[in-house]
Amino acid sequence: MSERSIDVDLTRTSSGQVVKERIYKWLLFGCAALTVFVTASIIVTLAADALTFFSMVSPVEFFTGTEWFVRGDGGTYGVWPLVTATLIITVVSAIVSVPTGVAAAVYLSEYASDRMRSVLKPALEVLAGIPTVVYGYLALVYLTPALQWVGIPVSTFNLLSASIMVGIMIIPMVSSLSEDAMSSVPDSLRQAGYGMGATKYEVSTGIVIPAAVSGIFSSFILALSRAIGETMIVVMAAGLRPRMFNFANPLDNLLSSGQPMTAGMVNAVTSDATGGSATYLSMFALGLTLFTITFAMNLASDYVAARYQEEYQ
Amino acid sequence: MTHDSMTDSDSGTDTQATDGGRESLASNDLEGSDPTTEPLVDSSIDVDGRSDAPASADRTVIESNDLDVYYDDVQALQSIDIEIPAEKVTAIIGPSGCGKSTFLRCINRMNDLVDAARIDGELLFEGKNVYDDDVDPVVLRRKIGMVFQAPNPFPKSIYDNVAYGLEVQGIEGDYDEIVEEALRRAALWDEVKDQLDSSGLDLSGGQQQRLCIARAIAPDPDVILMDEPASALDPVATSKIEDLIEDLAEEYTVIIVTHNMQQAARISDKTAVFLTGGELVEFDDTNKIFENPEHDRVEDYITGKFG
């Protein structure tokens, strides 16, 4: 069409650009791959040491035994007393954190004014930022005496106090993740609810929570994974004496001391046991069991989130 | 019901009429022909002749006196005076930002949800000022249903969507029957009767909007507010919604905000024209507004010279 030709130079100005781009790409890939590599190494190390342990103690004894008794390098390694203590802590901390966390999330997402939210959210984040050793100290020094003062006959080291404190620790996690889920519910749904003559409470409980249920549920699972893996609070406040679950008197399990899996691992590593002994290696078997449980819970969380996720326009 | 209404309304023709109307409006504008000598809107658009009835015979259900609305310091509505008749379709048209949705949301106090909104003046529903201190907006909204711009069904089953209003309002009765009746009136029953338990979100956009209409009419309100209910829908779905609105006006007072003038001309009995600045410029029978408006500004807006 036009005879005018402009001198257009479309060639690359400097060949170094391509090399730089390539370096950036591999650098970024390296960082991403590092996390995968570390995770994989942890699993391999855990599994290898756990296998050594299982060559000394039969897996049947480990996974079915109801007595955990460690003295020096030897002992009886039945995992159930530790697993039941972990379960107690998980259940009680869920009873503490789930209703409180969800209620706090509903308040923050639906009821709170912007000013109130700007005060409360940072406060909750501070709660999440407190080192767990401080929680452990609070449980041992204040919560346990307080429980005794109100007439609950807990011993100095007890699972109840530790579980309540773990529950308090994970409230911010439940509330913050649940609030994110509730805030992402489209406002048009709330408007529809109000337009139908629903009250704020009816909109919150009947529309927002069901619409956010997948996010709320995965917040539970993530928070409880955290509770299962929590170490410092339980080491400090629950005691280090492994006790098998007392079926005859279930309440007694709460009131007296116990040793969950994480505390068992701490005990193994801080004891006099020599490296390579069964006691020392039991740490890895416990770690692998714990890892399997939390990993399964995270998978469950992903599944639940995907299963109940609502697609909005 | 649905299939019949589809053929009756010959939605294809409606759509063409809309396009034709737009073209003629545009050409009027270009040629500068005197709009007063000919109908502003293509006469193929059916105004339904419903507004032939004398307006004075109508009972007023909603009335505003000197209603001002502010969002912070910005005035969104300026002393609106309007009397909306019962059991008619009243359309509110106007350019973007003219306050037409604001006015609609004043009627059922949805503006309460906006912190910045402040309202002066009176808005009477059946003679009672809805902004009186003793009025509970929750109770008010039970008498005034609302359908929104984009379909917003709850993430619940179709059945539960329709039954929601009945539950929160504590209405007694045979829910199965009420749900079926509401879905029939919303011209959706035949399409969903075998999947009442499936999610409302699985329906198409047009079906979702009809579900929202069914949800709004199930508790049997007195007035139905519609905020551009068809703007997110395709022409076929729009035509179904329009048919439905005309049917609803037999029993309900319908107030519909629309930016589509042809839609207002097709379905409404009365039309209110809001113009920029939040001013109600003219409110009259739809025929009058579209054929011979009193105000030049309204004429300019309707002929497309402005807005």
UniProtKB/TrEMBL annotation, chain A:
Residues 83-301 form the ABC transmembrane type-1 domain. Its main location: membrane. The chain crosses the membrane at residues 26-57, 77-107, 119-143, 149-174, 206-228, 280-300. InterPro entries: MetI-like, MetI-like_sf, Phosphate_PstC. Keywords: Cell membrane, Membrane, Phosphate transport, Transmembrane, Transmembrane helix, Transport. It is a multi-pass membrane protein. It is found in: Cell membrane; Membrane. This is Phosphate transport system permease protein. Belongs to the binding-protein-dependent transport system permease family. CysTW subfamily. Part of the binding-protein-dependent transport system for phosphate; probably responsible for the translocation of the substrate across the membrane. The keyword Transmembrane applies. It comes from the Archaea. GO terms for cellular component: plasma membrane. One of its GO terms (molecular function) is phosphate transmembrane transporter activity. GO terms for biological process: phosphate ion transport. It comes from Natrinema salsiterrestre. PANTHER family: PHOSPHATE TRANSPORT SYSTEM PERMEASE, PHOSPHATE TRANSPORT SYSTEM PERMEASE PROTEIN.
UniProtKB/TrEMBL annotation, chain B:
The lineage of its organism: Archaea, Methanobacteriati, Methanobacteriota, Stenosarchaea group, Halobacteria. InterPro entries: AAA+_ATPase, ABC_transporter-like_ATP-bd, ABC_transporter-like_CS, P-loop_NTPase, PstB-like. The gene is pstB. Gene3D superfamilies: P-loop containing nucleotide triphosphate hydrolases. NCBIfam families: 3a0107s01c2. It holds the Pfam family ABC_tran. The keyword GTP-binding does not apply. This is Phosphate ABC transporter ATP-binding protein PstB. Residues 62-302 form the ABC transporter domain. Residues 1-56 are annotated as: Disordered. The keyword Oxidoreductase does not apply. Keywords: ATP-binding, Cell membrane, Membrane, Nucleotide-binding, Transport. CDD domains: ABC_PstB_phosphate_transporter. It comes from Natrinema salsiterrestre. GO terms for cellular component: membrane. GO terms for biological process: phosphate ion transmembrane transport. GO terms for molecular function: ATP binding; ATP hydrolysis activity; phosphate transmembrane transporter activity.
